[in-house]
Amino acid sequence: MKNFLACVLTAALLSAPVQAQQIQPIDGIAVVVDEDVILQSELDRAVANIRAQYADRTQQLPPPEVLERQVAERLVLLQLQVARAEATGVRATDQEVDQAIAAIAAQNQVSVEQLRAQLAADGSSPDQFRDSIRDELLVQRLRQRFAQTQISVSDAEVDAALESQQAGGEQFHLAHILVALPEAATPEQIATGKTKIEGIKSLLERGEMNFAAAAVRYSDSPNALEGGDLGWRAANEIPAAFAELVRGMQPGQVTDPIRGPSGFQLLQLVETRDAAQAGPSNVTQFQASHILIRIDENTSAEQAQAEAATLHARIVGGADFAELAREHSEDPSSQSKGGDLGWFTQDEFGPDFGGQIAALADGEVSAPFRTQAGWHIVKRTGVRQADVGDDNRRAQVRETIGRRKLEDEWNRFLRELRGEAYVDYRNDADPQATPDAAPTAEPPATPPADGG
Fold first, then answer.
1. Range of 409's domain?
2. Which of 357, 362, 361, 350 is nearest to 377 (CA)?
3. 344-384 pLDDT, tens per residue?
């Protein structure tokens, strides 16, 4: 959750919410997305914030019109995910948004008022910031629901990964550049994409740009602005078509263009390591107690929130936490123990719960917050570094495999979501319609302005 909160803050500062119903003077529509729009002012704000992030390395940014298309596509995907979340019943209450904002402020060691002042100085209004946080919460929960329903990891997969680690197998740090092709691409679109990917490879071979900078400038992948980084992968986590190529590469080497389901790719091997060195032998564990008020057919969300708020007020007033947990908590596994949950890792009870724990100091009690289980009050009592035993090691490996699967399936879901949507770029061509032709196979020393 700590990392998630940092990402939320970054996303909130980079992206502005869609305000299709507001009347804004001298503003235009940049993109129509299904029945909603992205305003030019929103796009301009998001582009400006990306430029601010790259203030000390502006040479890595693509030409202005290419950067605008990359950022616009991110806003389109965000809007489509928010719409899907809302259509499937995913919600984020005002209370939850307030809690996320408070956690972001605490993470950045400022008060909520100071955070608002900083946002105002950066040109973001409180309403825009709240809407961006709400959107990020909705997308996070949509992704969690997707993971719960679409992703499974078998014991056999865990066993194979553990055997690979024990055998000292290699892991590979990869990056990629994607030249996307639309569904049912025409021969002309395929030829254009092939010319572009060959031009990028030629540019890299001549040393005119490093791989990360080329990814930022030319890749159509959602992680383009992160330099195309794919992170660490074990051999069994790499598609079979790529695995043999990667095994024969040296760090820093780049493949020839590869045609895949999404388009043409260049794959770089950044570095390698032994699986035995893949992670720390210790994990951070927290000790805490909690009070849970469930939401069910007899207790509405509002009633559960009100009861949690009353109990929190009593705790602040000096009531004993453990005694209140025994009297009021609806978690049968911890109620008789005064709410004691023992020692657990941050994500063991879900990212929402874990984030609240991580943001607390030892002895501190949280404000009431909501998860899928209901409304909680948590008291953190300790933190430690614990040796990873067999059970924890299996859980860690299972989580790693699940995360890789989720990444692949989620990206496929986003491609389908984008492909099914009506998206009309008013000031530019749809970036998915036809890949940019530049750079060509023999690009000039300075790539042309439409080099995205």
1. 156-278+394-425
2. 357
3. 888 788 778 888 998 899 999 999 998 877 899 999 999 99
